[in-house]
TrEMBL record:
Family annotation (PROSITE patterns): PYRIDINE_REDOX_1
Keyword terms of this UniProt record: Disulfide bond, FAD, Flavoprotein, NAD, Nucleotide-binding, Oxidoreductase, Redox-active center
GO CC terms, sorted: mitochondrion; oxoglutarate dehydrogenase complex
UniProt name for this protein: Dihydrolipoyl dehydrogenase
Disulfide pairings: 128-133
Residues of the active site: 547
Residues the entry annotates as binding NAD(+): 269-276, 292, 365
Species lineage: Eukaryota, Viridiplantae, Streptophyta, Embryophyta, Bryophyta
Family: Belongs to the class-I pyridine nucleotide-disulfide oxidoreductase family.
Cofactor note: Binds 1 FAD per subunit.
Length: 582
């Protein structure tokens, strides 16, 4: 199968992909054949932390040649044209792709004193800044305000009266676009200021440690690099049979421009993009119909959180849905006819329904953008387009052996399609290049869906944890707390929400935390940091939280956990008493 996909100004043909991998971390299951994407568990923002990184880097920036890197003589030399690796290098590190992954790696590389270049074929910032996290969060900020201002019941409960709230579509669109421009500028300036060479053009590998780049239609230039990092990201995946015209049938790339607000829109796919856009569209007045291939909405979330999300984010809104169906064919609106969507049963492929709507947003996952990278020249075979890597992000060749000095980070390796994961992988790679072994614990990487209220998560879902427990022979327990008992949430009149922790009662290890509620995206970090640091519940349950804050939801959660040793502590005196009285 082949699908035409666009990335920024480019168009490419990508092989359509096989399996949907649900969940990540320790347990996963391959289900249903449609679409290319990774696990559906995680996220948040990343290139955005670049400002903080920038400050850190500026203060410590001192270009040095790390002895353990062995960067060699860095003066410019001609690359070997015979496929052999060069002996001397123009750069310590060349990164292909200036998205948030590439940016994170570049900044960390200069901090480590590595001579660094980044090659970008479109615009700096990649998906997250230009077509992803940044503009979508700007639209979601408007969605949140509109919801609040139009929720009479909520405002009345707080004693507030306001007139009818309204919005200007173009100004909302401008807000999203302006924010992307601003953050793009920040990213570009941070790299320039620190001495990262930004090379413009499409990069590809011509031999080990040799990269050529150039603008399409112009002659290529060649650079040699001791280490190459592929960070070429991803593009929307459009299943075969769906015709995207960019006007009435579109992907997130188009939707973020908010060129119009359809009265009725079908969103194909109820993952992150589908859910976030349903929040935006319903706040701005659209009716939404979800089409989801798997048997329930939001199939990648912890099932209990998914159910609650359906009760809070779907049922009370102008949203209906069809689950267990594939959008087999979608035809854009033409000649006065609406968009036509033919649905078939996912399992039997029997025709189920035909929808006629004003617009369709295709949110069915993303495909790696790795074609034309020249990987075949160095014996690397992509898997469904993804670059195979080991736990250190080192690229694996066709025999499964690590290719020396070649790494791949971010969406292009498909491990976890999140901005901050891309950036964290980049930093981890640079640490290794600088001589310090580093393996990113992906189970500690949080994710968030920025709906109102937000959903966040880290680690395993309950079914994943239980499956792992069965496999490895340990008991799994679950603790829960509600936002309804939290003073701050109630003061805000935002008591709907749940926090859930999955853990090992024998060791106190936190296996996963899932939150649905006000500011869940910010709250998750106490749990993700605990997992990253290897802290157990025992370590954090006595940590003090300010009152009244939302963080007390997590405080309660940690305190609600029942560890085996605590049962033992209660039982021991009884046993002692019995033995004494006997
Ligand atoms: C609508 C939407 C919302 C999202 N929201 C969030 C969110 O809130 N939080 C979150 O964590 N994640 C979010 N994501 C996911 C996030 O955007 C991606 O995970 C992240 O951008 C991946 O970063 P990357 O550096 O791997 O790739 P990209 O950001 O895709 O960057 C890759 C760059 O490489 C360039 N490139 C590609 N090939 C070449 C080549 N051969 N030569 C030179 N340059 C090349 C591209 O032009 C691009 O600039 C969202 C995604 C979408 C679509
Ligand atoms: N807040 C965030 O962090 C955020 C926001 C947006 C996107 N993202 C990232 O972008 C990536 C892509 O997001 P996404 O929502 O497109 O993908 P996704 O993988 O999150 O969800 C895709 C959904 O589409 C369904 N699907 C696939 N093919 C289908 C078909 N033919 N018909 C009907 N349903 C179908 C899948 O079952 C799944 O539920 C994600 O991996 C996510 O990590 C993150």
């Amino acid at each position: 199968m082949e699908a035409m996909l666009t990335c920024g100004n480019w168009t490419q043909t990508l092989g359509c992909v096989g399996k949907v991998r649900l969940g990540g971390g320790g347990v996963s299951s391959d289900k249903t054949v449609f679409g290319a994407h990774n696990g559906l568990r995680r996220s948040s923002s990343a290139g955005l932390s670049s400002v903080a990184k920038e400050l850190r880097v500026v203060s410590s920036f001192r270009r040095r040649q790390a002895a353990n890197v062995g960067a060699g003589d860095l003066s410019v030399r001609a690359a070997s044209g015979n496929g052999a690796a060069p002996k001397q290098f123009d750069y310590d590190v060349v990164i292909i792709g200036a998205g948030v992954g590439g940016h994170g790696a570049a900044l960390h590389a200069v901090e480590k004193g590595l001579k660094t270049a980044i090659i970008e074929g479109d615009v700096v910032g990649g998906t997250c800044v230009n077509r992803g996290c940044v503009p979508s969060k700007a639209l979601l900020a408007v969605s949140g305000r509109m919801r609040e201002l139009r929720d009479e019941h909520h405002l009345k409960a707080l004693g507030i009266q306001v007139g009818a709230a309204n919005f200007d579509r173009q100004s909302v669109a401008d807000h999203a676009n302006n924010l992307a421009t601003k953050i793009r500028g920040n990213l570009t300036n941070s790299m320039k200021a620190l001495g990262v060479d930004i090379l413009t053009g499409v990069g590809s590998i011509v031999a080990p440690q040799v990269v050529k780049y150039g603008k399409i239609g112009f002659s290529d230039k060649t650079v040699t690099a001791r280490n190459i990092i592929i960070a070429t990201g991803s593009v929307p995946f459009v299943p075969p049979g769906i015709e995207v015209d960019g006007k009435t049938v579109f992907t997130s790339d188009h939707a973020l421009k908010l060129e119009w607000i359809p009265d009725w829109i079908t969103i194909v796919g109820s993952g992150y993009i589908g859910l976030e856009f349903s929040d935006v569209y319903t706040a701005l007045g659209s009716e939404v119909t979800f089409v989801e291939a798997l048997d329930g909405l939001m199939p990648g979330f912890d099932p209990e959180i998914g159910k609650l999300a359906q009760r809070i984010l779907i049922n009370p809104r102008k949203i209906d849905y069809h689950v267990g169906v594939l959008a087999k064919k979608i035809t854009p609106a033409k000649d006065g006819k609406p968009v036509q969507i033919e649905l078939v049963d996912t399992k039997t492929k029997e025709p189920k329904d035909i929808l006629e709507v004003d617009a369709a947003l295709i949110a069915t996952g993303r495909s790696p953008f790795t074609k034309g990278l020249g990987l075949e020249k160095i014996n690397v075979t992509t898997q469904r387009g993804f670059v195979p890597v080991d736990e250190r992000m080192q690229v694996l060749d066709s025999e499964g052996k690590p290719v020396p000095h070649l790494y791949c980070i971010g969406d292009a390796n498909g491990k976890m399609m999140l901005a901050h994961a891309a950036s964290a992988q980049g930093i981890s790679v640079i640490e290794q290049i600088a001589g310090r072994d580093n393996i990113l614990n992906h189970n500690s990487v949080p994710a968030a869906c920025f709906t109102h209220p937000e959903i966040s998560m880290v680690g395993l879902t309950e079914p994943q944890a239980r499956a792992l427990g069965t496999e490895e022979g340990f008991k799994v327990s679950v603790a829960k707390t509600s936002f309804k008992a939290n003073t701050k949430a109630l003061a805000e009149n935002e008591g709907e929400g749940l926090a859930k922790m999955i853990y090992r009662p024998d060791t106190g290890e936190i296996l996963g935390v899932h939150i649905l509620g006000l500011h869940a995206a910010d709250l998750i970090h106490e749990a993700s940091n605990a997992i990253a640091m290897g802290n157990t519940i025992r370590d954090i349950k006595f940590a003090v939280h300010a009152h009244p804050t939302l963080s007390e939801v997590l405080d309660e959660l940690f305190k609600a956990a029942k560890l085996d040793e605590e049962h033992a502590a209660v039982e021991t005196p009884k046993e002692v008493l019995e033995s004494v009285s006997a």
